[in-house]
Amino acid sequence: MTDTRTLLEWSAKYHANTYGRAPICLVRGAGMRVWDSDGKEYLDFTAGLAVVALGHCHPRVTGAIQEAAGTLLHTSNLFHTAPQIHLAKLLVEHSFADRVFFCNSGAEANEAALKLARKYAKERFASDRYEVIATRDSFHGRTLATVTATGQEKYQHGFEPLMPGFKHVPYNDLRAMERAIDSRTAAILVEPIQGEGGVNVPDDDYLPGLRKLCDESGALLILDEVQTGMGRTGRLWAYEHAGVEPDIMTIAKALANGVPIGAMLAKDAVAGALTPGTHATTFGGTPFVTSVAIATLTTLLEEKLPERAARMGRRLMERLREMKTAHAIIKDVRGRGLLIGVELAKPVGPIVAGCRDAGLLVLSAGDQVLRLAPPLIVDDASCDRALATIDTVLRAPA
Ligand SMILES: *Cc1c(COP(=O)(O)O)cnc(C)c1O
């Protein structure tokens, strides 16, 4: 076995230097916990960036992986496969959508949505109707189109020229959106709650307001639920809180509990703009990954994990708000379900590192927001332990 120090040296030497990784090497996971190469145990409140909703190595997921691996891994999309069809049907039955396109990541799902919106608007309205209005502090991915849609310069710097056809307005500002929409607007693209941008929860009238603006102008409403989807916010899809439906939705992170997958869901009238040959991917929706996604989604629904996320999230947020009185450094606690942001009055980096040293993995969202996104299976004892650790680390002199 290669020792940890050597592994980290090789990482520094052989990887493209794109990540500021924590100086640990994880080797194993089970449920809420992971272990590093020195045998140290961590309570995982990151869920692999809101991916491992059922926890690590859930038996039903592992079982689906083993079965698919011995049956049929890949066929390309030149042929039908039953798991892909069953998953599309399942997603349609449990959402606003009529049709599903499978791909491999969140960015790819958003690429598909952007391409669909352009094609639909050009065919339905006019050839110069292709603009997409996104919001500041958003995050939509790292490909050139999705990084252009992302309303944060730090992700765009150095990669110019960016894609033409994108505008940005402040999030949670209906007036600004109304002013930005014109006869060239093909779509509005927003996250129901901004994840990477700081766990920003909009006012209750924001999504209904966007829906109304879209209905009046003919623009499509695209919701990026890559992070908020699959029960994370306490409903299967975050748009359900708002009582309105999008025209297009993108999902990815938790869909197959860690096996890479993305999907774009759309209403029939919109999806029709994509005809054979207009969009494709080699790997999208393999029988392997779609089997795993079926196991993930059915388990999530059977075990009522969205409801659990709502309950545990309320509890966590209540306790975090109580901690505000003891910790002047906590400026705000916000979120929905198990997507929680704790805004601090100082940089969050040392807090994340302090928690890790104390055996708790947490996320940041921007420079000053501590983000909690545990697996949806999280129990009371794990919440208590995480809160106690955060309390201790916040108490420690910086
Ligand atoms: C993570 C994320 C993406 C990008 O997903 P990738 O799989 O990393 O391409 C897009 N949108 C949102 C809201 C995300 O949180």
Short description:
The protein has helices spanning 4-14, 47-50, 59-69, 82-93, 106-124, 144-149, 153-156, 174-180, 206-217, 239-242, 268-271, 287-302, 305-326, 349-357, 380-395; strands at 26-30, 33-36, 41-44, 99-103, 131-135, 166-169, 185-190, 220-224, 248-251, 262-266, 330-336, 339-344, 360-361, 363-364, 369-372.
Q: What can you tell me about this protein's structure?
A:
With about 400 residues, the chain is of the alpha/beta class. It folds into 2 domains: about 150 residues, Aspartate Aminotransferase, domain 1 (Alpha-Beta Complex); about 230 residues, Aspartate Aminotransferase, domain 2 (3-Layer(aba) Sandwich). The chain is about 40% helix and about 15% strand. It contains 15 helices and 15 strands. It has a 7-stranded mixed β-sheet, sandwiched between helices. A 4-stranded mixed β-sheet has the order 1-2-3-13. A hairpin with a 2-residue loop joins β1 and β2. α3 packs antiparallel against α12, α4 runs parallel beside α12 and α13 runs parallel beside α15. It is globular and about 60 Å long. The protein starts with a helix and ends with a helix. The relative contact order is 0.16. The model has no long low-confidence stretch (mean pLDDT about 95). Bound molecules: pyridoxal-5'-phosphate. Pyridoxal-5'-phosphate binds next to α5. The site of pyridoxal-5'-phosphate has 15 residues, from α5.
